[in-house]
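Sample entry follows:

:::
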Amino acid sequence: MRATDTIFALSSGAPPTAIALMRISGPDAFGAVEALAGRVPSARRASLAVLRDAAGDELDRALVLTFPGPNSATGEDLAELHLHGSKAVVRAVEAALAALLGVRRAEAGEFTRRAFLNGRMDLNEAEGLADLLSAETEWQRRAAGAMMGGAFTRRIEVWRQEVLTLSALTEAEIDFSDEGDVEIQNKHVISEGCIKLHDAIRQIVEAPGVEKLRDGLKIVLGGSPNSGKSTLLNALVARDAAIVSDIAGTTRDVIEVPVSIGGIAFLFLDTAGLRDATDDRIEAIGIERTRAAMDNADILLWLGEEGTGPAHPHLVEIAAKADDPTHARKGPDAVTVSAKTEEGMAQLVATLTEKAKTLLPPPDQFAINARQRDLLAQCASALAQAAEADDWLITAEHLRQARLALDALTGRAHTEDLLDSLFGRFCVGK
């Protein structure tokens, strides 16, 4: 990816479409427009133009817009061609652009990468954009929008300024403690500032992360064989995802079914029935996987005998098969359901969504990912060590490490491998 190249790519959906948006960015973006349209329209004004190739053959009649850098999406000269969205038109315009000297097709995420390198967005905003493009639920959209909008970046900048202030006070102690005209800050004041900042950052680190929003909360259905787990799963996801049979032990493996309910992503897991002993080796493996799934569950729906489920902070007792008078009843705290008559299903869905809201980041607030969480944890650890250090030089070094972690969050400090991994998530036209 050479930043000196002028790049182009289709930024709208795959043709055929009503309109196809072709983006061109780079030092010769306007030269490319002039080569095709015969002129460069006024900045930020849509202009109708006839596009022609090098031989003078008409390619399309399109709307052309130009956005001079640095005040553009990529921070450099940027042009948009709003074409008729047929496959033939798009291919012809792409061929004409590729034939121009110094102009090439963009690679995945290259437009957004240039926006980052040119200071139009930081790493957190770029990651928010990537999450927004892949969002499938309302909660995912809101969290991604908050991250892309810079809410997290603004919080980081506040923390960074506080760290810089603490560093300045520490340096004053190191350099000017013997001068009477300098106000000396004692260790207690600096340590207190480090601890206060550490606690604020740890709150974000320990909050629910974006992974739960993106991958879905794991809802495991557990219980004894033939307790109605598969039937309930099918009712919850509104399709026959699991085989239902009166034969105990029908489900041998963990079945995963993703679904969105109330704008929240869930991953339902149907499991093999639990029993103390079995001579069936395959069933025994399924039971082992069931126990592992229950250990990793965000919410456990227990269809077995009341009070016999594993210890879990979010266990919900389910009295299934309410339509069957011979089936075991449970206490008033259990959710009584019938997958056949739909009795109690609305209550179960409401229970799931209410519990989910306590396990997910609040709507309209940013949610951090694993990279961001690791760097914040490093920053918090450095601040804690700075607060405890007895030597001013050691305190200053820990504060420097805290500042470096914050810089890495926004991209002030970064590696090419990190950028390749991040921007590789985008499509070519982004």
Q: What stands out?
A: Confidence is low (pLDDT under 50) at residues 180-184, 242-252.
